[in-house]
Amino acid sequence: MRNFIKLLIVFTFSLSLTAQERRTVRDDVGFCWNPESMQKLVDYLEIQEQEHFNAKGLVAAISPHDDYLYAGKVYYPLFKILKAKEVVIFGVTHGTVRNVISGLQNILILENFTYWPGLSKPISVSGLRAYLKERLDPEFFITNNKAHEIEHSIEALLPFLQYFNPEVKITPIMVTPMPFARMERISEELAEKIAGYMNEKNLTVGKDIFFLISSDGNHYGKDFNNSPFGEGEEAWKKGRELDQRLISTYLTGVMDEAKIEGLTKELWGETYLDYRNTYWCGKYSIPFGLLCIEKTMTLTTGKKIEGKLFRFSDTYNEGVLPLKKTGMGTTAPFSLRHWVSFFSIGYYME
Fold first, then answer.
1. CB 105 within 8 Å of CB 176
2. Among 4, 71, 235, 344, whose Cα sits 20 to 30 Å from the Cα of 215?
3. Model confidence, pTM
């Protein structure tokens, strides 16, 4: 009865919000929006979990945004220890968005929603968003609700985020394609504004405010027109090894700008708009997010961040979690012709 009353209150509150106030769910198949189903998923993952990751000093992270039945084991250890009061989320601007809305390059995309979808209730947007809109150079961002409605890379993180942190608030930021020099320029100003907000509100990084970057890894196979190693088990192994090398070389250990730029040289082709070695959808969100986090840390703490790989896997290796009657499904197949890698990485204050 208590659960019924709680769901009724949430449902009634959601209906009272206008479309302008509330960002609706984009993907109701791959992600979980039902509290009971989420509980089943978390209970299953808890039983399977054999590692413990330290929450002390954790200030930022990279999270996957693939279907929960594929990537649940990769999301879980990160979100279990994430308890900050508000979270800045750097999302992808997938091609599906850029195909609908032209001209999405060299800028950040903010939105005007009061609430985002949550697991148990709508998630409020942090006051940081208004602070940024008032102070950021207008050349560096646009506000576009439609872009955020089409994009799924930010909403993917919200059910896990709210399950372990019910009162969390978010600042959603979509990162569009841009060259590295432009990333440096915009990230520097964004970091200055975030640092100013933190100082005014007396916020401690890691405890009061946290930074999340959304990204899946390689999209491999004929379905993606991406088969540099051919097909079969050996090609799958080589594709995985490439992503693992990029992670160990550029995304773990003590971070600096040279590492971040080095990653872009591995991910980008002849121009920043092309792919080179591997199809990471976060080829912009990761370097931009890390630049901004690094600069914010310098301004607020004077310290660097150190990356630790929590977990790496892929859809072919994981298959589908054996959970039934949850309402969750998969939005794409998995095979040697079509697999996606994903990883979770935590960044600690050095």
1. yes
2. 235
3. 0.94
Instruction: Report the distance separating Cα 292 and Cα 194, nearest Å.
Output: 9
DSSP code, position 74: H
Distances in Å between the Cα of 244 and the Cα atoms of 66, 237, 247, 250, 339 are: 18, 10, 5, 10, 15
Do 166 and 127 meet the contact criterion of CB atoms below 8 Å apart? Answer: no
Are 58 and 143 spatial neighbours (Cβ–Cβ below 8 Å)? no
Cβ burial 262-283 (10 Å sphere, 16+ → b, else e): ebbebbbeeebeebebbbbbbb
- Non-local (6+) Cβ contacts of 123 within 8 A are 115, 116, 117, 158, 161, 162, 168, 169, 170
CA angle 302, 303, 306 (to 5 degrees): 160
User: Residue 79 in contact with residue 164, Cβ under 8 Å?
Assistant: yes
Between CA 289 and CA 301 the distance in angstroms is 17
Point out which residues pair with 266 in neighbouring strands.
none
The residues of the chain scoring below 50 in pLDDT are: 1-17
C-alpha–C-alpha distance, residues 206 and 303, integer Å: 13
User: What residue spans define the domains of the chain?
Assistant: 36-349
Return the residue matching tokens 């298959």.
Answer: 319
Q: What is the 3-state secondary structure (H, E, C) of 286-323?
A: HHHHHHHHHHHHHHHCCCCEEEEEEEEEEHHHHCCCCC
Q: Which CATH architecture has domain 36-349?
A: 3-Layer(aba) Sandwich (3.40)
Q: Over 16-47, what HEC string results?
A: HCCCCCECCCCCCCCCCCCHHHHHHHHHHHHH
pLDDT value at residue 81: 98
327: left (phi over 0), alpha (psi -120 to 50) or beta: left
CB 152 within 8 A of CB 24: no
